[in-house]
Design goal:
heterodimer, A: alpha+beta, three-stranded antiparallel sheet
């Protein structure tokens, strides 16, 4: 998403100003600080707070206390998923080098109330969405895909070359909030370790209950339900995998990241965290943008337990279709090692990390099929 | 010395002994002393009355500046419940019995927490009443913003790849 011009980011037309009275009350300074009745921009901006909702309890919470009460548990706000996986890899946040790396790069993905409801996320360099009008329902293009436009966005909208988009979008035109509830964004007060912690949010069966137990008459649903995640059969094709991410700071101290070109691929692997909510043996895997020396420019061995977590992670590609190549015939999966993550697919230095997800032997070919 | 004078002196001495005995038994000074430092520290300060004025909704077009009686401070001090410090001249309490020959202390007025003299509160600026006319004037003017808005470099040119 190309960034807005500097002036566009803070421009509020007269029409927009007149249209959104509530969040202008009682005045700009109550939320944003700054100085009244001075003559220059520099004077007026002394003490200015660009994003007051970074401390939601002091501004948003005065009118929306119920929302703010749970927001600290939101993964969007707290980034607990990053902390969880980095700690599992041995990150010590009391180490200033690790803390610096985290603050420079991981917190890019932190978002606030305002960055979804009134402006673009800071990750995309910000800028008001529509004057200062607060949008109750965030925009799929300017908000959700501003951050999730690298992998999920192209999958969902069919923009990965040669791969059909998701039926929920291509046919149903469903925006993100049709499946993802408010609690998914705002948090529900529970502390989750990462986005796949706890119940599926959303679960396919919420809208397709007849699939459960094969009540819809589809034999494969009966046979595979607790063994294979829905996406394994219904993801329509390749999705993005990222490799070789390196981060650091340049000569001016500005953070940068360098990522090798992504690769489209489709890999079925073992479910490394089976649970009551996710009982399957097989799930889809995606290589995430991490490697052993990702933080090397900040210090040596900042992830000493790197191998404790796979680099091929459980994923839920957003390119769902009823009919896919792999569910057309039993033996499109059975006995087909191409679709499964085997040792040959894994970088030698990452073999140890991925032992829990590598498929040692793909399911055998089904005779007579 | 006449017998009358001698009797009077004896009576006075007797009364003095009785008075001294009563004072020693009570163990208290005859007058109430000011509160201790600790007592003052927990004393609630008077509740500051917040202005209930609500700023006038700003109009889309910048309104002319209105005269205000006192220019608001750009950084008004936040309301505070910090207890007032105790006066360093407050004498410490004492349980020392007062000898009947001591010069009686002057009668002190009873001091209640709310009677403690406090410095005049600083003028409290109600942020809600400040004018946003300047903010609105600039941020609704494309011309002004095009002239004044600056892009602060936040991303390194060394960034490459997707994401």
């Amino acid at each position: 998403m190309p960034p807005l011009e500097a002036w566009e980011k803070v421009f509020i037309s007269d029409e927009e100003f007149a249209a959104g009275p509530y969040h202008f009350q009682p005045n700009c300074i109550v939320c944003h600080g700054g100085v009244s009745e001075v003559t220059t921009k520099e004077e007026a901006h002394v003490g200015l707070v660009r994003d007051p909702s970074a401390r939601p309890e002091t501004v948003c919470g005065t009118c929306h206390p119920d929302v703010v009460e749970t927001s600290s548990s939101s993964l969007h706000f707290g980034l607990q998923g990053y902390k969880t996986v980095l700690e599992a890899r041995g990150a010590d946040f009391s180490n200033p080098q690790m803390a610096q790396a985290y603050n420079n790069h991981c917190t890019e993905c932190h978002t606030t109330c305002g960055q979804c409801h009134v402006s673009r996320p800071t990750y995309t360099e910000g800028g008001l969405l529509s004057g200062h009008t607060f949008k109750k329902v965030a925009s799929i293009s300017d908000t959700c895909l501003a951050c999730h436009g690298g992998r999920v966005g192209p999958e969902y909208q069919g923009k990965n070359e040669g791969v059909e988009g998701d039926v929920h979008w291509m046919k149903g035109g469903m925006p993100c909030v049709e499946c993802h509830t408010v609690a998914d964004f705002h948090g529900d007060g529970e502390e989750y370790a990462h986005r796949y912690d706890g119940e599926e949010m959303p679960a396919c069966l919420d809208c397709h209950p007849t699939v459960s137990g094969g009540a819809d008459g589809v034999l494969q649903h009966t046979l595979h339900q607790d063994k294979v995640a829905c996406q394994v059969c219904h993801s329509v094709g390749d999705y993005k995998n990222c490799y070789g991410c390196h981060v650091g700071t340049d000569e001016e101290g500005l953070p940068y990241r360098q990522l090798e070109p992504s690769e489209l691929d489709f890999k079925i692997g073992l479910n490394s965290f089976q649970s009551e909510e996710r009982p399957w043996n097989y799930v889809l895997l995606r290589h995430v943008p991490v490697n052993q020396d990702i933080f090397a420019s900040y210090g040596e061995n900042l992830l000493p337990d790197f191998d404790a977590e796979p680099t091929w992670k459980y994923t839920t590609p957003h390119n769902i279709q009823r009919d896919t190549e792999q569910n057309a015939e039993c033996n499109n999966c059975h006995g087909n090692p191409e679709l499964f993550l085997t040792e040959d697919d894994v970088l030698p230095e990452e073999l140890e990390a991925n032992q829990s997800v590598i498929v040692p032997e793909p399911p055998p070919e089904m005779p007579g099929q | 010395m006449s017998a009358t004078i001698v009797r009077a002196l004896l009576w006075l001495a007797l009364l003095g002994v009785i008075g001294a005995g009563l004072t020693v038994c009570s163990g208290q000074t005859p007058t109430q002393l000011p509160p201790t430092v600790e007592e003052v520290a927990v004393r609630p300060s008077p509740t500051r009355v917040q202005s209930t004025d609500v700023g006038v909704p700003p109009s889309p077009t910048p309104a002319p500046e209105t005269a205000t009686p006192e220019p608001p401070s750009p950084t008004p001090p936040p309301p505070t419940d910090t207890p007032e410090p105790a006066s360093p001249t407050s004498p410490p309490p004492t349980d020392t019995p007062v000898s009947p020959t001591d010069t009686p202390e002057p009668e002190a007025e009873e001091v209640s927490p709310t009677d403690t003299p406090e410095p005049e509160p600083e003028p409290d600026v109600d942020v809600a009443s400040l004018s946003s006319d300047n903010c609105i004037g600039c941020h609704t003017s494309q011309e002004t913003l095009q002239a004044l808005a600056e892009e602060k470099e936040v991303k390194s040119e060394a960034t490459s790849g997707e994401g």
